[in-house]
Amino acid sequence: MDLNYSESERAFRDEVRDWLAQNLPAALRDKVKNHKRLSKEDHHLWHEKLRSRGWLCWHWPVEHGGTGWTPVQKHIFEEEMIAAGAPRIIPFGPNMLGPVLIEFGSETHKKTYLPRILNCEDWWCQGYSEPGSGSDLASLKTKAERRGDVYIVNGQKTWTTLGHHADKMFCLVRTDPNADKPQKGISFLLIDMNSPGIEVRPIYTLDGEHEVNEVWLTDVEVPVENLVGVENEGWTYAKYLLTFERTGIAGVGYSKQLLSHLKSLAHRQKEGGQPLAQDPLFAARLAEVEIDLMAMDMFNLRTVSAAGAGKAPSAESSLLKIKGTQIRQRISELLRQAVGPYACPYISEQFDEGYNEPPIGPEDAMPLARQYFNLRKLSIYGGSNEIQKNIVAKTVLGL
Amino acid sequence: MDFNLSEERSLLGASIDRFLQNADSAEKIIKGGDQNLANNAGFWQEAAELGLIEALLPAKAGGLGGEGLDFMLVFELLGKHLVNAPFLSTAILGAMPLWLEDTQKYSALLADVGAGKSRLALAISEAESRYDIHYADTTATLIEGGHYQLSGHKAVVLGASDASHLVVSAKMEGGGADIGLFLVDGSAKGLKLRSYQTIDAQLAADIWLDNVSASCITEKGGAILSQTAAAGALCLSAEAVGLMDVMKDATIEYVKTRKQFGRSIGSFQVIQHRLVDLLMEIEQTRSATMLAAAHLFSPPDIRDKHISAAKNLAGRTGKLVAEETIQLHGGIAMCWETDIAHYAKRLTMIDHYLGDSDYHLKQMMRLSA
Questions:
Q1: Backbone angles phi, psi at B120, to 5 degrees
Q2: Which residue, A1, A61, A262, B5, is most buried by CB atoms nearer than 10 A?
Q3: Are A219 and A258 in the same domain?
Q4: Are residue A256 and residue A375 in the same domain, yes or no?
Q5: How far apart are CA A249 and CA A378, in angstroms?
Q6: Of the candidates B164, B23, B156, B18, which has an alpha carbon nearest to the alpha carbon of residue B84?
């Protein structure tokens, strides 16, 4: 056993770090660090940079234009991206649909869509959740009826992240309403967002922001060749995709970044003139979460390495999702707590590009309450933490 | 022992409840954008006529209440209806130092406050004070005969922007360990305000004082500040209880109607047990708040022990209730359109005013050692 990074892994980290230092535009980095709103153009710019280095679809095997990285390399890449303040890769094409098409797509799908994802030509969104189908995703009702060469799709999807920017959507639809189990009779369709009958409506979240949407589908025609895999077998592909979604959700890199921010704040913040970092109670809170994160880091590496390169992670990834989100939420709570009364002021315009008024209180205080509230989503999305526990109880414990 | 409110208070509570129920719904106003009930002159005037402000002032200050139980009653209802009007900043934090010090001297101003004609605010928090109410870098320099000049910066002052007068804490130049309290005219020269909304839809401001003329309320204000902050912490704890009752009930209703896996999610034991935990912790917080109300005017150490117990529990339970009610609702609770989101924001941020749960835990450690 050797729990240290090998020489080649350390060299890889240096390579990623150097590249980021030279290629991540300072303006973009500052926007991310200051929690400013990112435009579609910002995301495109960054995807384009990664594309030029061949690192946009870093999950994919080499033969499809990916990196073929080991799990440890992937972990290092994610950590360095976050530490550098890079915008996150919008995952729907590169991290989610890509692996599904590589595993289950037709040759035509692979030839048509994979290069377009690799070259940042298509922005994909995810059509999974519905108003009546959240944790119980398999109960989804959006239906697709075959008529000649097309499916006619009717229904409503929700929580569609950045759907207002998307060109295309991968979508779970019900093709056999009479199947004996809800998981059967679901199909996986690729839908052009410019099709007639699609309407995207914004959902404003509790912080007043617009990131997620409702997508309404009324008599949308989808060519039958846009079916991925076999009709009524879509649940298998959906689950395959979700395991990829789940590992990233552990968010160890994000937690490390939040923790280092927390430490910096604790040294700058004062109570009664004394640094907060010297307050034994606050220091204990901080130390406790650092212990959790140190362990989590190793737990994460153990689990992703066990899965092997290019493979879907095992059901243990559910544990990573639960613990990882708990830790990230906890640190976001301590960050909010750390700035005391200065967690309260909230000027929405501050998050726009070009807002130049001086900050109220510490310059990094205002986003912290918003971040805390926003991150409540971590334990809800990607399969709520309750659902992850069901998976572990059933699959790992055999209960 | 008698755990019931007096008939008089019960009647007052019922009429306030009705009034707030029918008033321009606070949720609607918050959801409608950056508005605040404080800006709604009609609401404030009606509230004053109903005696809502006077209920928070004692008879000697021209009011009808002013006891711990009055505070608890009113603020629980303000929480229940998610009212974001400046009752705390005006009637408690701003008014209390005045009537504790000298009811005669400030009777006209206090009468105006009770009648809804004037508003006050208490400026104690500073960039480096955090929750230490006795800490101030703001200085007071004696000019002549009880008149002073104040200079410094005050942080996140609730209700400051439309206050006719500010009560400001400052260290006395050449003075001892105690802290002075001063009355500053809201339009005084040298006073600069930067007003803003808070994430929980309150109105607040940062204030800069540059040789601002002020009259001294007291040169030894430490004890008065402690009493006032204790009352404020009690009010916030009671408000939290009111918010939490609504959030718990809304969540129980939701899990009964939300169906997944072919049955209401409230039929799952894991959901049931978590709601039982909420109920239990809310009742603990309500109990601690009642105790704090009963001890609001007890000797300082006894008072502060009970106040810190209540505010610590309000903070801990508030976090639990906000996080769990969002989690049990799922994504829908993350939407602006959902009431629970706004209740959760207020409940969470209550921990950032007048001492968070850890601050009060430290007070408790000191007082119970």
A1: -125, 165
A2: A262
A3: no
A4: yes
A5: 8
A6: B23
What residue of A is the nearest CA neighbor of B33?
A: A208
Residues recorded for chain B: 369
Angle at B55 between CA B53 and CA B59, to 5 degrees: 110
Instruction: Give the orientation angle of helix A367-374 with respect to helix A317-338, to 10 degrees.
Output: 150
pTM score, whole prediction: 0.95
Structure-token match 């640190």, residue found? A331
Domain that holds residue A142: 124-232
Q: Helix, strand, coil shares of chain B as percentages rounded to 5?
A: 55, 20, 25
Is residue A94 in some structural domain?
Answer: no
Residue identified by tokens 């595993």 is: A103
How many domains in chain A? Answer: 3
**Number of residue pairs across A and B with CB atoms under 8 Å?**
140
- Considering only the top CATH level, what class is B120-220? mainly beta
By C-alpha distance, the chain B residue nearest A130 is B331
A206 → chain B, closest CA residue = B336
Residues A392 and A273 in one domain: yes
Q: How far apart are CA B246 and CA A165, in angstroms?
A: 37
Provide CB contacts within 8 A for B174, sequence distance 6+.
none
The distance of B146 to chain A (nearest Cα, Å) reads 27
Based on the domain organization, do A254 and A388 belong to the same domain? yes
Chain B contact for A19, CB < 8 A?
no
Q: Is there a contact between B246 and B319 (Cβ–Cβ < 8 Å)?
A: no
Please state, in angstroms and as integers, the Cα–Cα distance from residue A335 to each residue in A30, A131, A293, A345, B15, following that order: 19, 33, 15, 15, 41
For every residue of A287-312, which 3-state class applies, written as one string? Answer: HHHHHHHHHHHHHHHHHHHHHCCCCC
Contacting residues of B for A378, CB less than 8 Å apart: none
Terminal CA-CA length for chain B:
29
Tokens of B209: 């004082």
CATH architecture group of domain B224-368: Up-down Bundle (1.20)
Q: Which residues pair with A228 in a beta bridge?
A: A188
Class of domain B7-114: mainly alpha
Contacts of A298 (CB under 8 A, 6+ apart): A3
The torsion region of residue B62 among left (phi > 0), alpha (psi -120 to 50) and beta comes to left
By DSSP bridging, strand A227-228 and strand B165-172 are: unpaired
CA A267 to chain centroid, in Å, comes to 31
Tens-level pLDDT at each residue, chain B (369 residues): 888 888 889 999 999 999 988 876 555 566 555 456 656 778 889 999 999 999 999 999 999 999 999 999 999 999 999 998 899 999 999 999 999 999 999 999 999 999 999 999 999 999 999 999 999 999 999 998 778 999 999 999 999 998 999 999 999 987 777 999 999 999 999 999 999 999 999 999 999 999 999 999 999 999 999 999 999 999 999 999 999 999 999 999 999 999 999 999 999 999 999 999 999 999 999 999 999 999 999 999 999 999 999 999 999 999 999 999 999 999 999 999 899 999 999 999 999 999 999 999 999 999 988
Q: Does B98 touch chain A (CB under 8 A)?
A: no
The CA distance from A18 to A143, in Å, is 49
Residues 129 to 158 of B: which have CB under 8 A from any A CB? 129-132, 134-135, 155-156
Torsions phi, psi for B218 (to 5 deg): -160, 145
User: Does residue A241 sit within a domain?
Assistant: no
Contact A388/B at CB under 8 A: no
CA distance B12 to B31: 29
